Amino acid sequence: MASDIAEILKQNFLEFVQDKDLNLSPTITSLFEEIEKEFTENKGYWSPPPVESLSYFYQLDHTLSEYRANKKTFTLFSRLDPVERAHEKTLHDIKENLHQMRKSVVNTASNSTLFTSCMYPTRKDAPNFSIFNEEVQKIVNWLESNDRFKAIAIHGMCGTGKTTLARMVLDDQRVRDKYEEPMWVCLYDLKASDEMDVRIVKEMLSHFGEDPDLLTEEPEDNWLVERLNQKLKGRKYLIVLDAVWHCNDWFGDLYDDGKGDDMSKVVFSQALPKDSGGAVIVTSRHKEVSRILVREKNLIHLRPWDDEKLKELVKECLVKQGKSLEKINEENIDCVVYHCHGLPLVAVTLSDWIVEQIIAKKSSSD
Fold first, then answer.
1. How far apart are CA 308 and CA 293, in angstroms?
2. Chain-centre distance of CA 271, in angstroms?
3. Using an 8 Å Cβ cutoff, are 99 and 105 in contact?
4. Is the pLDDT score of 287 beyond 50?
């Protein structure tokens, strides 16, 4: 949902810049054109926008609202208008932040030889929100319960904290002690069922330093699956398959050992040794995909949060951002919660900016 909101705000901006009746200064017009160019020339990244960009889209939409409110008052000397001058720096910062966000993902993805999606860091800069303690404890207890192979899925709508929860689990000291350095594979780019293929195995092999030239060739699927199995054999591996959209006959039940009636059939799950205590965590928006991959009993459903739980998270975010809660009343907190639509990711992203807007508005009215 957070990504959907960002997409709506992006389309709102693109419609705004097509309005030829606005009499904006050359500087502001140029900034709008550069932001528009960022979206139109990089559609692969901005359609839909990543949820991490939502705060920038809210800032952009807030700026557009100011211009709409003052549209009829602009004159031929609008470049001197205080509204334009006040927002010039804001627009410049938004433009730079959007550009840097896209470039940083491209640079990070250069470590991933086959997908363009971001490979999230593991055990580095992991978020730490006490609000997820119960879910973290549940997953860690499950991972520690025995040394059999395990697969679990965290599912829920966009913005409910699936990826954040997975990263917090990886950062738990008990998980660090039990498992080797985890492997994180983001499958966000694979948005059709027929795309869930042996490229996933190639991606995982690249983590072990396999020859990129060999992986870009077309070796037999069974050779690649067996190769990954040998790399993982004897290890207490922990793999996160993040942002899974689909499954199919090849990429299905992770508990399947491939010892069914058709011994010639090769499937992804055969790449995962079942006798060395390995584990897989899946994150997905789709319950049915999650159920097929890990089975019904191994599902964790993250729902949108109620207002009281979200208030706790907003307060925790504000404290981490260095804000004094003494200067922020309950009405301010309620305003932040209202804009979050039950989504913790939006609260984390927007709490600081929304409160800044509230404080600025209050100061200007005093």
1. 33
2. 26
3. no
4. yes
pLDDT confidence of 121, banded at 50, 70, 90? very low
Q: What is the 3-state secondary structure (H, E, C) of the chain?
A: CHHHHHHHHHHHHHHHCCCCCCCCCHHHHHHHHHHHHHHHCCHHHHCCCCHHHHHHHHHHHHHHHHHHHCHHHCCCCHHHCHHHHHHHHHHHHHHHHHHHHHHHHHHHHCCCCCCCCCCCCCCCCCCCCHHHHHHHHHHHHHHHCCCCCEEEEEECCCCCCHHHHHHHHHHCHHHHHHCCCCEEEECCCCCCHHHCCCHHHHHHHHCCCCCHHHHHCCCCHHHHHHHHHHHHCCCCCEEEEECCCCCCCCCCCCCCCCCCCCCCCCCHHHHCCCCCCCEEEEEECCHHHHHHHHCHHHEEECCCCCHHHHHHHHHHHHHHCCCCHHHCCHHHHHHHHHHHCCCHHHHHHHHHHHHHHHHHHHHHHC
pLDDT computed for residue 120 by the predictor: 41
Six-digit token pair at 340? Answer: 């979050």
At 57, list the tokens. 């889209």
* CATH fold of 132-302: Rossmann fold (3.40.50)
pTM, two decimal places: 0.69
User: pLDDT at position 143, please?
Assistant: 93
C-alpha–C-alpha distance, residues 59 and 97, integer Å: 11
Residue spans of the domains in the chain: they are 1-106, 132-302, 307-364
